[in-house]
Specification:
- This protein is an alpha+beta fold.
- Helices cover 29% and strands 16% of the residues.
- Strands 1, 2, 3, 4, 5, 6 and 20 form a 7-stranded mixed beta sheet that branches. The protein has a 3-stranded antiparallel beta sheet with strand order 10-13-12. The protein has a two-stranded antiparallel ribbon with strand order 7-15.
- Strand 8 and strand 9 form a beta hairpin.
Length: 629
């Protein structure tokens, strides 16, 4: 007894003297990004003990750091946890300002939130789920040991960035939800960094490439290198002088950096700030999400080439890169607002932008988050590449993935990876946007599962080529994958099953129950009584030849709604649940299910709707979950 008391006293003395603690959980999530929050909340709701650790002083990643104009194409692709977030934003503005207020309208169905509102919603979701959250803690070391002959992540050390406290966290499962892939790298997982060559996967946009209007130009060698997409800040700004603070002149202001922009203005190529120099997108309360205009000019907020050392950089290196981008960004706005060589019209337009007094008070009203468009990329059980978001042969849909746990619909989009060449002075190396041929694409579970490491899932810095990553690097997709990772973690803990052997169909069923999708339909919503039935059969490929028989011409879907980038639902992706099932379709579905000779459905389908027929078929053929390995 005395020995136990002595050890306890020594432990308490150690904690108060050195700030060290040791804690255990079922799941530890590192990275308070939206994907990490989705993982943590979903797992906590599943009844396991969850700890979320974030390096910044706040959670939410880019959605609480200035990114408010969310990237996706159609609302039909946005379901599950992200819809819950949207509903929370919508409810906040409705409660505070009224259901018919301008703030509600400007939030656009809850998509576009001020940073502090996004933070409020995320904090509320975490609290209601009972997730323990530690902010201002940076990963120091990952602990791996062999279990059953395989390396397994079982613990990690973290240190407080604001004080001497440190902690050792032990868990049955870890999720790396950082943008950079810091935990998976510390654990010793293999990963990719930079651009593959064109030969590696046969990708059109791989390697060194210059693209204009969808055409690949001379000088595009396709050679692989260490280049990654350029970073910038998504700057939250306001045009309200009452709520505004002036842009400070940075300490190391260098006018010469911005002269290429001045020359473009003086040549008449640029006549305005909005949509020619910067992307300004309105959000509630007279604020803007200000982003890089990467396809318009050789110089904007992002600086291709400056970010290459960030993913593998230590704390000191990242601070150096952050400061360089910060001073460049502040100087960029200072130059536009104050340089007398800038035409008065453009200067006056730029002067309408201020830093908001009611955002980021802890960080001098400027976002604490740099936009990490691309970091490390896991080497996983499966690798997502360029063709995986394109139209599959002999169908109007994309490639069928029966092991899908998420859906995307944005298509290939990469910001510049390097500066323009002298042969293409207005085009950044590696910048491309190729959405016109993409269709909604399914994303398999295996992109989150490391090749060899056990005890870890990676839903953000996931397994893909550089080009494939350009179709996956969106908060909506990362949140969907994070939600699936949370479900997989609960299953692994409760069933004592390795993550790579968790039944994918079980993850899918729980996702569907939570309103998530694994296949895209334009006319079946989570609120429909047959939603889960259609998601089940759709994920198995029952609609890859439906509703169109034979060949149909591809229809360009990029018909934007108003001044948004969002479009109506993709054509040819309707399930038509209330249509009558015809003989040919009924027999095809029965054959797929191995029920050709079923005494009832094979004879009495006449007059049944597709929803009724598939519901009856579902009762017959629902199988126990299977695993990927």
């Amino acid at each position: 007894m005395f020995k136990r008391i002595q050890l306890l006293l020594l432990g308490l003395l150690s904690f108060f003297s050195y700030g060290f603690s040791q804690q255990t959980a079922d799941l530890v999530v590192y990275g308070g990004t939206p994907g990490g929050i989705a993982s943590a909340v979903q797992a906590a709701r599943g009844g396991v003990k969850v700890i979320l650790v974030e390096e910044q002083y706040q959670v939410g990643g880019m959605l609480t750091g200035g990114l408010a104009y969310i990237d996706f194409r159609t609302f039909e692709a946005v379901q599950g946890f992200f819809r819950e977030y949207m509903n929370g934003v919508h409810q906040y503005y409705s409660t505070r300002y009224g259901a018919n207020s301008k703030q509600v309208a400007d939030s656009y169905h809850g998509l576009q939130a001020e940073p502090h509102v996004a933070l409020y919603v995320f904090d509320s979701l975490l609290r209601s789920a009972g997730v323990r959250v530690f902010t201002n803690f940076r990963l120091q070391k990952a602990h791996v040991r062999p279990v059953g002959g395989k390396p397994t992540l079982y613990a990690a050390d973290f240190k407080n960035t604001k004080g001497p406290q440190s902690m050792l966290l032990q868990a049955k499962v870890f999720i790396d939800a950082t943008y950079e892939g810091d935990l998976m790298a510390a654990a010793g997982c293999s990963y990719r960094l930079g651009r593959e060559s064109r030969e590696t996967y046969g990708e059109i946009f791989a390697g060194k490439v210059f693209v204009k209007d969808g055409r690949i130009l001379l000088g595009s060698t396709g050679e692989g290198d260490r280049a990654i997409q350029g970073y910038n800040f998504r700057v939250c700004m306001t045009d309200s002088a009452e709520n505004g603070l002036p842009i400070p002149k940075p300490e190391n202001y260098d006018r010469s950096i911005y002269l290429p922009l001045l020359r473009a203005i003086q040549s008449g190529q640029i006549t305005a700030v909005s949509d020619q120099i910067l992307k300004l997108r309105s959000i509630p309360n007279r604020k803007y999400d200000v982003n890089d205009k990467h396809l318009a000019n050789s110089i904007s907020l992002a600086r291709p080439g400056w970010s290459w050392d960030w993913p593998e950089g230590n704390e000191s290196k990242r601070k150096e890169i952050f400061k360089r981008h910060l001073e460049y960004t502040l100087g960029f706005f200072f130059f536009l607002q104050n340089d007398e060589a800038i035409p008065e019209k453009i200067r006056n337009e730029a002067k309408t932008l201020w830093l908001p007094k009611d955002e980021f008070e802890e960080n001098n009203h400027f976002t604490p988050s740099i936009y990490v468009r691309e970091g490390r990329r896991l080497s996983g059980v499966m690798t997502f590449i360029e063709k995986d978001c394109q139209q599959a042969p002999n169908t109007v849909r994309g490639y069928l993935r029966k092991d899908a746990v998420a859906v995307g619909d944005y298509g290939l989009n990469s910001h510049g990876c390097d500066e323009p060449s002298r042969y293409h002075p207005g085009i950044r190396d590696g910048a491309f946007s190729y959405a016109t041929s993409n269709l909604p694409y399914q994303i398999p579970y295996g992109v989150m599962v490391p090749e060899k490491m056990e005890g870890l899932l990676v839903p953000v810095a996931l397994s893909s080529s550089h080009v494939g990553f350009s179709a996956l690097r969106y908060e909506v997709i990362w949140t969907s994958l994070g939600q699936a990772a949370g479900i997989a973690a609960v299953t692994s803990v409760k069933q004592r099953t390795a993550l790579r052997r968790v039944a994918v169909e079980g993850i899918q069923q729980q996702l569907h129950a939570a309103g998530g999708i694994t296949v895209y339909f334009s006319d079946v919503k989570p609120s429909d009584p047959w939603f889960r039935v259609f998601q089940y059969f759709g994920t198995l490929g029952y609609f890859h030849d439906v509703p169109q028989w034979g060949s149909v011409p591809f229809e360009d879907h990029l018909k934007f709604i108003g001044d948004h980038q969002y479009t109506p639902a993709f054509p040819y992706h309707a399930a038509m649940p209330l249509e009558k099932v015809d003989e040919r379709l009924a027999r095809m579905w029965l054959e797929k299910a191995g029920q050709q000779n079923h005494p009832v459905l094979s004879q009495k389908y006449s007059g049944m709707t597709r929803a009724a027929f598939l519901t009856e078929l579902y009762k017959l053929v629902y199988r126990e979950p299977y695993s990927i390995n």
